[in-house]
């Protein structure tokens, strides 16, 4: 424990080095900027800027990506609160009370509470990360191929079944991602699989092309002529952002509870941030003495979900960095970025790349402070950005996508890949398939195959190897449990919808949310 | 929540699509060496995944239908926006062709200009202005500052 604190101190040294600080700042700024734009979430922001990191050394690259991640998350909250526009689904629930607050002229207060909630929650998440990661690593060093295979399978299954929509659709998408991940030269035999005669494909499908096709182009295809310019007279200044003592007091415990919800869900692989924020909101509403205020501008309804999504974000990094197993699509992208940098996340990462790991942890704090410093003076700019009409936004973004993908490997073929994945993603979205599990499958696929093959080579083809190792047996049992549960839910048949327009599981009223998600992208 | 959101055939089309993809993947994998559990060939794992995908597709077609209300959250309006689709895709295609034969500047202009017409609100003037602005950004930021490996202008491949 003392060791962890000592390492963390060293991490601050890394994070505060001028070059690293600069890239972290850049990431937060640009992430915030992109996150504010309608229809652009963390996924699109990270994928667009991923090519920029190739010229950097690993530490600033990963600090920048992490900065983009929480910058864009905060940017999303701005859109949700001020304009009732969730730029990505986790913020949908923030709209419910955030926008009414704006209508009452308290938008600035809601924003500053959001800022505090995210800082507080992120801090808690970081503390958990500091102490839990080394612990997980000490367990994980004993993991062999069967254990890794089982855990990856669990992560994939959770990621597939817990996103929105039907579980079976998510599973199909994860499998599709595994297929996409299998394209290219097989490392064991040198055979080119699924290349269809294209030499360019023998080096695998490009991660950036896949991500930008699925989360950029397909979003534009679904949203063009549907998202209108958003007129808003909202004016905000620094002065409006100061919450009163009563408001602070009111939001303190919701913030704490939201943080706990986030920590809990972060520990479960595959649970997306959307479900986390919904549960945090529902919990607050349930506990409140005056549940009627929710939806009318209750500050608790902003503080709790925002806190939960930020603490979950931090905790999500734990399995990604220390096991090399990403919990959701954003983490899959960050993992991909690490691999591109030649860094293999896993138990050895903390010891071999201590500067990177602890620098990242420390930069979370630094970055969150930067976020606050940035947003106080720039809030007026964000408000203006929010009004940028979609008809100017998407053609410009398309250019950034095209040039970003090209610069990854100086390959126009990969720009073509974006085109293909964009169309495929849009068609799949229209058919009610969530596209995020594809990315998860793509990143996990090669590792899954590798460990599957290794495990069976060690056991000489005996499948019982997965059950004779206690850890993998338990994890596989959990997988089976999830599948059986989903099967039970599916066989039980269509659930009778609640008349009040509620979703199952006592989630808060989803009407206004559904409305927006219909207009905007549908990634969770 | 109007009717056009609800696409009754989505499950059917999607399921069949997944099964077809799965079967295709299995057939392709057969072409590589499948091998055995003890000694897996390059085709073993993709064949396994393909088979699971095909089964999942069957499951999607056969499962009990979900009520419309639950769909609202994840359903997209079903009427496709052909104009938007055409312009966006043509814009990307134009970028690839122009970058190959004419350089970065024409490619930048074309992708923005063409895709802008996907939105009904854009006029020739607004699309051209937007394309010019982005062309300047492209030259300054990507070509000059970031040094993207693509000549600004060139003739032929």
Notes on the structure:
The complex is a heterodimer of chains A (524) and B (157). Chain A is 71% helix and 1% strand. Chain A has 524 residues and is an all-alpha fold. Chain A has one domain. In chain A, strands 1-2 form a two-stranded antiparallel ribbon. The two termini of chain A are 35 Å apart. With 157 residues, chain B is mainly alpha-helical. Chain B has two domains: 70 residues; 64 residues, no CATH class. Chain B contains six helices and no strands. The N terminus of chain B is likely disordered. At the A-B interface, helix 8, helix 9, helix 16, helix 17 and helix 18 of A face helix 1, helix 2, helix 3, helix 4 and helix 5 of B.
Helix content of chain B: 55-70%
Characterize the largest beta sheet of chain B: strand count, sense, and whether it forms a barrel. none
Assembly type of the chains comes to heterodimer
Shape of chain B: flat
Sheet with the most strands, sense and barrel status of chain A: 2 strands, antiparallel
Count of beta strands of chain A: 2
Mean pLDDT of chain A: 80
Q: Tell the overall outline of chain A.
A: globular
Helix content of chain A: over 70%
